[in-house]
Amino acid sequence: MIGTKIKTLRLKNGYSITRLAEKARISKSYLSHLEKGLNNNPSIHMLEKIAFSLNTTIDELIEAGSRDFTFSSKLSLSNEWLSLIKEAINDGMTKEEFTEFHSYLKFRKKMNTLVD
């Protein structure tokens, strides 16, 4: 969870919840809700403020938050998907290549629906 990662980094930096909230210029209650998992959908703007205050990146907050491969309370990856992703990574596929391939598949699907 993102909240757990934020709390871990906050403590690692020696910040109280009050100090991090002040530094990020967000409310203490908002930060507390994030850390407790009561808010699991912070905006990019809020993540940017928190990440900057913790001397890290949004990617690190999100990646660490998704290590369990759960992207929402309703969507999680099956072991089959995880195996496919791991295999692609081990074969050297980059994020950029995956994004390009995904765009190609969407294009191909759109073209097929136009032809049908």
Sum up the structure in keywords.
116 residues, mainly alpha, 434 Repressor (Amino-terminal Domain), 7 helices, 0% strand
Question: What do these coordinates show?
Answer:
This protein has helices at 2-12, 17-24, 28-36, 44-53, 58-65, 79-90, 95-115. It is an all-alpha fold. It folds into 2 domains: 2-65, 434 Repressor (Amino-terminal Domain); 79-115, no CATH class. Mean pLDDT is 83; it is low at 64-74.
Brief synopsis:
This protein has 116 residues and is mainly alpha-helical. Helix content is 68%, strand content 0%. The longest helix is centred in the last third of the chain and has 21 residues, at 95-115.
Helix content: 55-70%
CATH architecture title of the largest domain:
Orthogonal Bundle
How many β-strand stretches?
0
CATH superfamily of the largest domain: lambda repressor-like DNA-binding domains
Give the DSSP E fraction (strand runs of 2 or more residues). under 5%
- Rounded to an integer in angstroms, the radius of gyration calculated over CA atoms is 18 Å
Unreliable spans are: 64-74
Which word captures the global form? elongated
How many domains is the backbone divided into?
A: 2
Number of helices: 7
CATH class of the largest domain: Mainly Alpha
